User: Fold this.
Amino acid sequence: MPGTVVVGTQWGDEGKGKLTDILAKESQMVVRYQGGHNAGHTIVVDGEQFKIQLVPSGVLYPGITPVIGNGVVVDPAVLIDEIDVLTARGIDCSKLKLSGNAHLIMPYHQELDRVTERYLGKAKLGTTRRGIGPAYADKAARVGLRVQDLLDRKIFCEKLDVALKEKNAILAKVYNRLAIDPAAIVDTYLDELAPRLEPLIADTVDIIHAALGQGDTVLFEGAQATFLDLDHGTYPFVTSSNPVAGGACTGAGVGPRDINRIIGIAKAYVTRVGSGPFPTELFDEQCDALVERGQEFGTNTGRRRRCGWFDAVMVRSASRLNSLTELALTKLDVLDTFETLEVCVAYECDGTRYEHVPYHQSVLHKVTPVYETLPGWGVDLTGITSPAQLPKEARQYVAFLEQVTGVPVAYVGVGPGREQTLTMAA
Assistant:
């Protein structure tokens, strides 16, 4: 059976982990195809909260094969710690597979991430400083170390020596930092971490295609979201990989014909972490209410998220970039207390109306959102168990978002739990 891609349509934190967890119940394999441990998923099962960074969300189901694809950058220590935490909580991680072609995050990547952000000052990008960008930069420069290199001491040491000659020179001469000792890296990566990871390392492309070939349902899970995409996002305030649905092909090793369903995830409002343009951003007590009610703090960093009204311009653009077949709307319950709701249906700038996100960053930074106002519902949605129980105003809000985005809403979230997701009528 062809695969399904779950992709964020905004700036991340839309609830991809929760939906992936729900869809995984009907799948045999869940594949993470890009990003690193800079993106976290929070999943609530029977009132118990799980925070996942690298391991695919489907690991919470015992019958699933979770796969970390070649497009992911991996900090081995973080991955092992995450496996240990999940195992200690009764989650079986024995089926987890890790692509030998995935790239490693090295200590010098993390150090470079920290110092460059510090030196950028007000122009900083707002990275999580976990080495993600520098690891992807080395991948593109063809000087990166891959997971498979952990299995060959000679190759690992040769590649490390080449990399450190450049990195240590930069750290010392540009940033006045101490040189990184290669022996310490070898001790940690090869002697401590490699033995733990070796049983997981595999040809994941072959594993994924074997599953597709025998008719299994394969779910492809991205991190971040469309407008953090390196090519299509609000550059330079983006991630260093391609979260869009097409990224699943390169990041997992499948072709476009292996995918027939692409589900876009959107919050019922919009949030963003870090720097960059945000046309519908709020700065008043309404923002504070969204932060408080939605618990809008980063899973990994704890940073307060910027909040704003739903932006249909973004989702329309995300729809054509990803070929969305449907939408999952999350956190509708967060809007329960608002008397009225605003939805951005277009942008205006210097007399021009924009129905899609303008390509030029100078325009995007200056646009004014064009809003339509809808009534709130003033009812607690968290106990609702079927679409028919939604108040009229909530149904109108969902229907309006379908209309202005051009994408049918298949799922609506009314709380953080697995059971608090409504499947809408086709």
The first helix runs from residue 16 to 24. The chain has a mean pLDDT of 93. The two ends are 21 Å apart (CA to CA).
